[in-house]
Records
---
Amino acid sequence: MDLTGVDLMRLFVREFELCKVSPGEHVIVLSEPSSRTDYVAAAWGAAQQLGARVASIVAPSGSPIPEPVTHTGSGPGLQSVLDNHVVQDALKGADMVIDLTREGFVHAPVQSEILSAGTRILFVCDAPDVLARNMPSEADTERVEAAAELIKASRVMKVTSEAGTDLAVDLVDSHPGFQKGFVDRPGKWDHWPSTMVVCWPMSSSGTIVLTAGDILLPFKEYVQNDIVLDVVDGRIEGISGGPDATRLQQFFDDSDDPWARSLSHMGWGLMRTANWFATAMYSKHEIMGMDARAFAGNFLWSTGPHPFLGHDSFAHLDIAMRGCSILVDDTAVTKDGKLV
Ligand SMILES: [Fe+2]
């Protein structure tokens, strides 16, 4: 073991303590050949140190969807696991799965089956110092739960910005949820690092104006010039602007997907340690972009899949905006991009 391995193990032990990994629990470390082997080793060692019964499953690479496998966050799973009931049964039999695959399984139906069996899943793929800087804490549970409760008890979310965003979002029956960066309850999934609230609105209408400095994921790139999006009943019906608008239009056209222009999850970031410039400071293969997605006070919205509307889609963009004011019924949650 080298020094970086020892360093990593310290981080993973702290994270697994938050996840309440305990003596006698069955922990499976799931990876693929191109996963970070130092993470596999650290997860393995940390689980063992906390007294868990640990095993590692390395499944062959290969995605069920025709998208680049570049830590996008689309989460379609590995074809080799989707095809293998023996592996699925092993994952269902575990108390906890550490998912170190490159894309994860968050949008693969098999993940719901594994969670339903009582297994909890932690997904990890960002660079070591992203994990360290954004180490979650117990107190985050209360913050994300309060935000989700607020959405649940409210009817409308209004999002405005100086750049011209003016969006009204229907929150009724929007299935609010959250990510808190660790998973300490059976049957739950979480992502280290993350601290955010999300919901799945049935409908939204108005205008979204992306402006310089906003971040397009999974491209992991900053918007350079304004993109004006006309949203009608939860769907992007108009795109205008300069070269960035053209690129977005091309993405939607190329995806050849009926739900590509439909809006997906929405919410705001609560991760105070997140760094907006992380997107500029790492190579694209080193991060999934959780600093952008969970940045405290951002407005995060997305396109493509919507499980509660039956939209089955892999054309999934996450778009993180600065400078937005978010009003949930009468409660201001962000003001000009800062948490209230
Ligand atoms: Fe997303």
---
Amino acid sequence: MIELRSDNAAGVAPEILAAVEAANTGSALAYGGDDLTAHLQEVVRTVFEHPTARVFPVTSGTAANSLALSAATPPWGAVLCHPTAHIIGSEGGATSLFGGGVVMRGVDGAHALVEPARLRATLEQVRWGDPHESQPSVLSLTLPSDYGTVYLPEQVGELVSIAREFGLRAHLDGARIANAVAALGCAPADVTWRAGVDVLSLGATKNGALSAEAIVAFDDRIADELVYRTKRAGHVTSKMRFQSAQLTAYLTDGLWLRLAGHANERMAELVAELQSLSPYGVRLEERVDVNMAFVELPAPAIDVAAEAGLQFYRMGPSTVRLVTSWQTTVEDVKEACARLREAVLGADGSTG
Ligand SMILES: Cc1ncc(COP(=O)(O)O)c(C=O)c1O
């Protein structure tokens, strides 16, 4: 079997497992009062070049998003995001739950990225001060998007500055932010607080951690709320040191960017093969900026590829999603390419 369903299906990076093992000596104060959690705070400030950023380890991306957003909006607020965003379609309304009734509104744009002109038009049409309408309070951008596309730092900056004109705060869903930073080759600060982002959901589990995500608040008022909100939601874990150990290992010596860069490179190899199959009905449905591709294939080829042991998500009768991870090897990709080629050429009538 070759795993291309999701980076969530990958295992734990050895460096991170080793950090958990190393944290498993002696005892430590519970609920984040330990030295490893204090150290993580310093590591986050260094990596993000922000002297007062505050980090809150949580156990899922949904928790990171919904708690970060609930701390940034009043209950009568509306969170603006792309209609394909995970927060709007795939988190069971967690943000509405923790936000006390907050709603989410889609603002469209090509390549699963919010378009600045549409954001401005949406905000200009709001009946500000009218209690009959939820009041836009936060712009949430997803980087990379759920379709694997990235905003450049200046695009994040442009969108956030439009949102700011109307008094909104800015959140970044960075469930795969390492893949974006690795692809962009920028500093983590450039796509976050330097571009105006107030609070970040920092993913780690998809990219090699065991069970750790984090909320990074660049705004002190949001951080002050998160102290209570994370506890009330059950995310102040008693043995937090093991999450902190994972996150510290992840962010130390660029491990997070190496793991993500590896996943991106494997996807680039796969994409080169897919492009060479374009005469046979293979088409990339979206730009591939990181480790995720949405691909249109002849329907019979999809079944053949699945039978040949390729694991992927079917998005429609002739569309699949392919995702590589830190664990995908060069050999996996070569083998996947060979099996895909065979499936596609077999399905193409002209080649018999
Ligand atoms: C963009 C994005 N944000 C957030 C999440 C939520 O993460 P979790 O499944 O850990 O709740 C996911 C999960 O797939 C995601 O793809």
